[in-house]
Specification:
Helix Hairpins, single chain, Beta-Lactamase, 4 domains, 12 helices, alpha+beta, five-stranded mixed sheet
Length: 486
């Protein structure tokens, strides 16, 4: 219960003014004056508190006796009944002050509890909305400081041994106490400095400790915060474990997919090489022209096999690591022609329409990666369009972007799947069993485009699908990515 001298002086001033009005202006009788005093005592008690109302009551008793009980103007009470009335008035006024103060305090406590409940609810919702842009603990302490308006929050995570802080001030001096609280579940507090340290438990086991500074809180509220923090930390840990499991599963799936792809893709050149060497070994005396033909076949297929190995390794690296760009100036038409030539065995007799006019002369890109991206798009077009339909490759400039478009005339991609085809391993259920593939090609092509600060998009309808690979002419640092005519 706090003591406010200024409020007591104000209450004395109020009783003086009330007496002057009642006696000097209105000339009311003792009964009316007594009721007026009681009314004002209740108002003072409910507004300020007990000490102010008590001072009012004692002062009002003396003034009541002096101005309203005969003989007026003295503190003597002639009638014994008036003495009983005066002491009864004083007793009732003090009891009323006490009861009114308790009622006011209960109302304030109820309001504070309601506010604490609302803040705990807001904090619990904030925990559920925490994203993955930065460590969970950093976001947690910031939201705690914001919701409960504390000067400083420090969280010590026992599992990692790290401190996470938020707020304009800090509790670095309390690091030892935070460690001890997390290790043994102890609680520390300092009312003068207005800080406290409490353990964060999951069940009976402490998993962290929490330091709060700047706002006095009820123990139940602090315990509620600690419980929510424990739930949040455990939720974050469960999400991390789930993510690790998912990464492990995807890595295993990627490994299996690449092994299957290698077995499938390597079979043709290995078969050709084996056939050539078998014929050479079986007929060592055959004419030189025939031997050279077999050696040439083996050499070409060995080169094809080398490219397959390089591409397979590149696919795995691009899917699991940061893509390092080594830009060099190159002609767009040359990049397209070399990619098409390298895919001649896959393209076979498929008509290829190439439109790479004079809008872009040269672009500064990592040629090897751009060729790999175009190869993935061409391979995708080959799989999902009829053999007798052409493929169209167009290179042009749109505003500040160099654009390479690859169009096929297949069945198209359903609208509901167009936003998912770039997801790793995703393949449409309608073709998953009919058309071989790993679900990695489009993901890799888009990764390459974005590594060049560009993008890969798709527009599709029944009978026509176009993938647009864009490369900005100017990158974020202001260097030229593409050079050509406007």
């Amino acid at each position: 219960m706090r003591f406010y001298p200024v409020r007591i002086l104000l209450s004395l001033a109020v009783v003086g003014v009330a007496t002057w009005v009642s006696y000097g202006i209105l000339h009311v009788n003792a009964t009316t004056a007594g009721f007026l005093y009681l009314l004002l005592i209740l108002i003072v008690a409910s507004t300020w508190g007990f000490w102010e109302a008590a001072a009012f009551s004692v002062t009002a008793s003396f003034l009541f006796n002096f101005y309203f009980f005969p003989p007026v103007g003295t503190l003597t009470i002639a009638d014994p009944q008036n003495s009983v009335a005066l002491f009864t008035f004083l007793f009732v006024s003090l009891i009323a002050s006490r009861l009114s103060t308790k009622a006011r305090r209960r109302a304030q406590d109820a309001v504070e509890r309601q506010q604490d409940i609302e803040r705990l609810y807001t904090f619990s919702r904030s925990i559920l909305l925490i994203g993955t842009a930065e460590p969970f603990q950093n976001q947690l302490v910031r939201k705690l400081a914001d919701v409960f308006e504390v000067n400083s929050v420090t969280l010590y995570d026992l599992r990692s041994g790290e401190f996470f802080r938020a707020g304009p001030s800090d509790l670095e001096a309390m690091d030892v106490k935070l460690r001890e609280s997390a290790a043994h579940g102890t609680v520390f507090s300092d009312d003068k400095a207005n800080w406290m340290v409490t353990a964060v438990r999951l069940g009976a086991e402490p998993i962290a400790s929490l330091g709060l500074q700047g706002t006095k809180m009820a123990d139940s509220t602090v315990q509620g915060i600690a419980n929510l923090v424990a739930i949040g930390l455990e939720r974050a840990r469960a999400q991390d474990l789930a993510h690790q499991v998912e990464v492990a599963q995807q890595s295993e799936r990627l490994r299996s997919t690449l092994i299957d792809a290698m077995a499938h893709e390597f079979k043709t050149p290995l078969t050709s090489i084996k056939a050539a060497t078998t014929m050479l070994l079986a007929n060592p005396g055959q004419p030189a022209e025939s031997r050279m033909e077999m050696i040439k076949v083996a050499d070409e297929e060995a080169e094809r096999l080398r490219k397959l190995i390089d591409n397979t390794i590149e696919m795995a690296r691009l899917d699991t690591a940061h893509i390092e760009i080594k830009p060099e100036l190159a002609d767009v038409r040359m990049i397209i022609d070399e990619t098409v030539a390298a895919m001649k065995p896959e393209l076979g007799k498929r008509p290829i329409e190439i439109d790479a006019g004079g809008q872009i002369h040269e672009i500064a890109v990592d040629c090897r990666l751009i060729k790999l991206a175009i190869k993935q798009l061409l391979d995708n077009a080959l799989k999902y369009s009829p053999e007798d339909t052409p493929l169209r490759i167009r290179a042009h400039r749109v505003a500040d972007d160099a654009v390479i478009e690859i169009t096929d005339y297949g069945n198209g991609i359903p609208a509901q799947e167009q936003h998912r085809i770039f997801d790793r391993f995703y393949r449409s259920p309608s073709v998953q069993q009919q058309i071989p593939g790993s679900g990695l090609g489009l993901t890799i092509a888009r990764s390459i485009a974005r590594a060049h600060q560009g993008d890969l998009m798709v527009t599709s309808r029944s009978g026509e699908t176009t993938f647009r690979l864009t490369v900005p002419i100017l990158n974020k640092g202001g260097r030229t990515w593409a050079q050509g005519a406007s």
